[in-house]
Amino acid sequence: MGYSRQVYLQAENELNKRHSDAQRKAQRALDAFYAVCPEAETVRRRIASTASQAAKAVLRGTDVRASLETLKAENLTLQRHFAELLAAHGYTREDIEPQYVCKKCEDTGYVDGRMCACHRALLRQIAYENLNRISPLTLSTFADFSLDYYSDERVNGGRSDREQMRYILDYCRRYADNFSKDAGNLFFTGATGLGKTHLSLAIASAAIDKGYGVVYGTAQNFAISLERERFTRPEEGGDTLELLSDCDLLIIDDLGMEISSSYITAMIYNIIDTRIMLKKPTIISTNLSMQELEKRYNERFVSRVLGFYDRMPFRGKDIRAKRKFGSRPDGVR
Ligand SMILES: [Zn+2]
């Protein structure tokens, strides 16, 4: 699973916190109970002592059975007495024993050396939250993508903007529904504010729900990280290049808006090319036309994209402006 090191560390911290919170809470309740009922502490100590005496009896080896029977009976009496004291002071066993979020692994994240389901769910949730934090919108869904903002006027008998966008929306929804490690690549083109980021994030959210490792960012953010890590040694961290090449789904928003340098251009080409070779899905969106892309990167880059990506030309007028100024969506009467 392609999560970043950061995500694993965050999950580990969260598990440690859950585990120690449960223990601390139980200890606090136990201390409070002993404060009002000192006898209970003595009983507890005697329970522990019967256990260690039993172990000693086994080691001694003489009259083991008889000694164990006596100790067991004594232990049971003490347990019962302890339970009575608890109840008499209004406490339950749950109060004084750690209540872990996950009973299976007791919030350690592992059962018999294998990652617990709660741990996997936590990794997924953290990746999702991180994604949500860096995205310009709250995480978008297909359900709140409205076609009403696109004109249904047909020009020269061709598809209207709305028909075109319905086609893209359906395509993206199917892509998300069937998402797997070898899903295809998508290339979103069109002006700013036509919903490219919205649909990218809706796909990202669906892929994360299915448990895939998704990395989402603008080309500019990736360029800054790559530039920063250019001269750091591997042991100092900096897994951006590895993560971008290796995650289950990479989404590069606003390609062409990043700082322009031959290093960054080469890196971006590298990442895209590596992912094509590894058959790992990538979604790219850009405001630039194919001609502008050719000028900015090169012909080879554009032919790679044309050959290995499904192109989705977004159409319409900036829907963000329409939302902001509260005009009625086209076609709503
Ligand atoms: Zn667990």
Automatic annotation (TrEMBL):
SMART domains: AAA (SM00382). InterPro entries: AAA+_ATPase (IPR003593), Chromosome_initiator_DnaA-like (IPR020591), IstB_ATP-bd (IPR002611), P-loop_NTPase (IPR027417). Residues 182-282 form the AAA+ ATPase domain. Pfam families: IstB_IS21 (PF01695). The keyword ATP-binding applies. One of its GO terms (molecular function) is ATP binding. Keywords: ATP-binding, Nucleotide-binding. Gene3D superfamilies: P-loop containing nucleotide triphosphate hydrolases. This is ATP-binding protein. It comes from Anaeromassilibacillus senegalensis.
